[in-house]
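Hi,

Apologies if this is the wrong queue. I'm a grad student, and the batch job for Transposase from Paenibacillus elgii produced an output file that my downstream script rejects. I'm not sure whether the problem is my script or the file. Here is the sequence I used:
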Amino acid sequence: MTKKYDKEFKLQTVRLVQKEGKSVAQIAREMGLHENTIYRWIAEFKQDGSGAFPGSGQLKPEDKAMRDLQKRIRDLEEENEILKKAMHYFAKDRR
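Support response: The file is valid. Your script probably expects a header line. Output copied below for reference.
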């Protein structure tokens, strides 16, 4: 099972590499981590900065916006279908 690390631990580990100039291999040995894990955290931090490592159940702002827009689309499509059915129902009454 994959071990979970909190945001602060990940940031601290990335800072050790970037600010203190320690090697990834050295930090991996000291902290009992795999080197690839640290490299992944560094890449995530470079890409997202302070928004990196959002945590369990939390989305990055752009992911949240995308999810909200997708929900809005689904709601509007459902509303559109209801209105189409109502239109057909009332059109039958006119005949």
